[in-house]
Write a structure and sequence with these properties.
- By secondary structure, this protein is of the alpha/beta class.
- The strands form two sheets. It has a six-stranded parallel beta sheet, sandwiched between helices. A six-stranded parallel beta sheet has the order 9-8-7-10-11-12, with helices on both faces.
- Helix 4 packs across helix 7 and helix 6 crosses helix 8.
- It is 35% helix and 15% strand.
- The longest helix has 21 residues.
């Protein structure tokens, strides 16, 4: 198979999460570059009831398969080299308090054995961060992995020219309304900051149960499509993301691409995204005071907002660019085929 051009098949479970978005964007980018690539979508219940889902037929043109590490081994194609991408740090022990018993057992009894088998079977495993790789090697299987950071379409996610800080200082949180994301910190942070600051957040219906203790300087903007996310980022002064654990932190990289100074937790893969006080700010996890003081410092130094936001955009272009991510995967496909 020397000098064979990669033709990549993606059997994948449709979960309506960021992993779907990753697969769709990678396949579209591969097709644009002249590589044949196609997704075989499996229904969501293929994740937990795989025996009820027919095994998809491998296309005759495919010479490599790309899956994610949650795909049940039943669906791993035979007689093809397999690339597996590890998208999560699901087995991080620090996540335990936020899972609940049922989810914890699901991850431990079901997902963990699946990931162990997939990682053992795959010809090559890619993690989306060094943190995700370390957690998996420590708690699942100690197999070598490469790291390819998720890529951002930096032509879609971009900063507006000549942007100046606003009054009140406009903060943005985009993410699920879950304790894992640190959302219980948002209200006390905003209460401490007061009326010179305003936070727009994607709480949606899920956040309505917490409305009784949410201050007036927090505005629920519901769920957003991609264009609405970009517009929200372009009109914010800073991005606030107190998440407790991330396998990568795609929304943070998107905010950086939009030229926002990001104020995030000093934890998990988030520490790989920014250089503190240069391209963003790392705050002690769960420390309301640290987040408050950092945000006040940003507001009181508008030139710092502009400088750090510009640096963040530069890092997004050089470290988290979608084109670079795609090229790294193409290099990997080619190397595996030609070494096979």
């Amino acid at each position: 198979m020397k000098n064979t051009k990669p033709a990549i098949w993606f059997p994948a479970v449709k979960t309506n999460t960021g992993t779907d978005k990753f697969t769709e964007q990678l396949v579209a980018a591969l097709n644009q570059r002249g590589f044949q690539a196609e997704i075989a979508w499996l229904p969501h219940h293929a994740e937990y009831l795989p025996w009820l889902v027919p095994i998809p037929q491998k296309p005759s043109w495919a010479n490599i398969a790309h899956i994610n590490t949650w795909l049940h081994p039943r669906f791993i194609p035979k007689h093809l080299p397999v690339i597996a991408t590890l998208h999560h740090a699901t087995h991080d022990p620090q996540l335990q308090p936020y899972k609940g018993w049922l989810r914890s057992q699901y991850h431990k009894r079901w997902i963990q054995p699946i990931e162990r088998t997939v990682i053992q079977t795959a010809n090559h495993v890619i993690a989306v961060s060094h943190f995700a790789a370390h957690i998996t090697q420590q708690h699942i299987i100690n197999k070598p992995m490469s790291v390819i950071y998720n890529g951002i379409n930096t032509q879609s996610f971009f900063s507006l020219p000549d942007k100046q800080p606003q009054h009140p200082f406009r903060l943005l949180y985009i993410g699920a309304w879950r304790k894992l994301k640190g959302v219980e910190l948002l209200a006390p942070i905003m209460q401490a900051l007061g009326n010179d600051y305003i936070l727009y957040y994607t709480g949606g219906i899920t956040a309505e149960k917490d409305q009784y203790h949410i201050p007036d300087n927090m505005i629920n903007i519901g769920r957003l499509n991609q264009q609405e996310v970009i517009q929200a980022m372009q009109t914010a002064d800073a991005f606030l993301f107190p998440s407790k654990s991330e396998g990568f932190g795609l929304v943070v990289a998107e905010a950086m691409a939009c030229g926002l100074p990001v104020v995030i937790s000093d934890s998990s893969a988030l520490t790989e995204l920014v250089d503190h006080a240069s391209t963003g700010f790392l705050c002690e996890k769960d420390s309301i005071d640290d987040f408050v003081q950092t945000i006040r410092h940003l507001k009181n130094h508008p030139e710092l907002c502009i400088e750090v936001g510009g640096n963040a955009r530069d890092i997004a272009l050089t470290r988290f660019n979608q084109d670079d991510m795609v090229e790294k995967y193409i290099d990997l496909y080619t190397r595996i085929l030609n070494d096979g």
